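Blackboard transcription, Thursday session:
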Amino acid sequence: NAGVMQNPRHLVRRRGQEARLRCSPMKGHSHVYWYRQLPEEGLKFMVYLQKENIIDESGMPKERFSAEFPKEGPSILRIQQVVRGDSAAYFCASSQQLNTEAFFGQGTRLTVV
Amino acid sequence: DQQVKQNSPSLSVQEGRISILNCDYTNSMFDYFLWYKKYPAEGPTFLISISSIKDKNEDGRFTVFLNKSAKHLSLHIVPSQPGDSAVYFCAATEGRYGNKLVFGAGTILRVKS
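(Written on the board underneath:)
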């Protein structure tokens, strides 16, 4: 089952370091979404990308966070100068078209120490 | 401002009985609603959805009811099975935004055998 692949599954970073989270969408999917789940909360939308384009980044913090989905390779969510409050589970989802079902990856659990 | 609310953090049900999970929303522009199931350390898995033009959608043991006037939806699972024990998330979206989902905080369902 070649589902949405996220890596790493677990990532530990010290405060001030950079975190890079990768997401390979399902085969044939060109729409990628990133969500963040803080402890005891639901998932919160961060950003929606298509190949080489950011379509909607209304859920992304204005500073330190960036996302890309290059023509080749996985989508990357990058967090610079991480702080303890960035500790969360980050989920990626992909869909084939805009309004078709999105499939989620298993998530990356980021811990900032 | 929580646009999607799941007011019951947890629910415990006996195997074979009905499980009813509730969800309320505030944004009248939402026109598509979904339920996801999530096991620990895994990503959300799509369960069932309903468009705002319908008031009921059924798929096997799972039925979702939508009451637009009350801005309320519910997921019925009957009969409940121990394997249904998981966190259930209600999500909503405005169709034109595709998979930019707004999630509730989730309800932990425990089905006792």
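Lecturer's comment: The interface with chain B takes residues 4, 6, 31, 33, 35, 40-45, 48, 56, 91, 93, 95, 98-99, 101-107, 109 of chain A (CB under 8 Å).
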